[in-house]
Amino acid sequence: MREHPPCVVLTGAGISTESGIPDFRSRTGIWARYDPLEYATIDAFLRDPAKVWDFYGKRLAVLGGARPNDGHRALVELEDGGVVRAVVTQNIDRLHELAGTRALVEVHGSIRTSSCLDCGTVVPLAEVVALLPVPHCPACGRVLKPDVVMFGELLPAARIARAEQLAREAGVLLVVGSSLEVHPVAGLPLETLANGGRLAIVNRGATPFDGRAGVRIDAGAGATLTALAGRFQ
After folding, report:
1. What residues act catalytically?
2. What are 71-122's pLDDT values in tens digits?
3. Is 174 strand, coil or helix?
4. At 172, which CATH number?
5. Closest C-alpha to 98, from 110, 114, 90
6. In terms of domains, do 29 and 45 share one?
7. Taking the model in full, what pTM does it have?
8. Contact at 8 Å (CB) between 165 and 189?
9. 138 and 28: one domain?
């Protein structure tokens, strides 16, 4: 990272497990208990929004009380020290924001707000929680949609374009807690490698890019990133 600046970080669910938030794709993850085709697609939401909100309502109870962990805080320290240029995250949990990350690209959206697909009203998280179990738009009455990207929806064009630009310009792309299986974000390492950058991966479990990474650490994000930040002090 010293020899090949700048460093851009890509984070997935694995960085938030130490904050008590379940991941998605492990044997005990969310998709082992919930079929994503029933709960996490835009078609499912349009077909039965109450069922989808039963799923999201339970998640909000966990996400609302979660706090950043050592991994999130270490990335803020690295950003403050000029080591990390930006964080691109697949997570919707706001923990990077709460930790203090400034240059943040949330490619899959955030639970920060929910919106009405009819009139466009935007409702902040605290008000959405108060409207559970099925939050309706206070303006027109339609069921609100969480401002997260569901399967079957396109990622926000400006955000994925920014993520791709950062990946292309990265001297090192540091992947933390992502299985690199969900596209198009899973293609960001290719952008870095194609432009002469290096790839480093910190993740519990294998990823499709392990063989192309200059550094591969199978360990938790908190201890690993804290140790990394310590090397730059």
Report:
1. 108
2. 999 999 999 999 999 999 999 999 999 999 999 999 999 989 999 999 999 9
3. strand
4. 3.40.50.1220
5. 110
6. yes
7. 0.91
8. no
9. yes
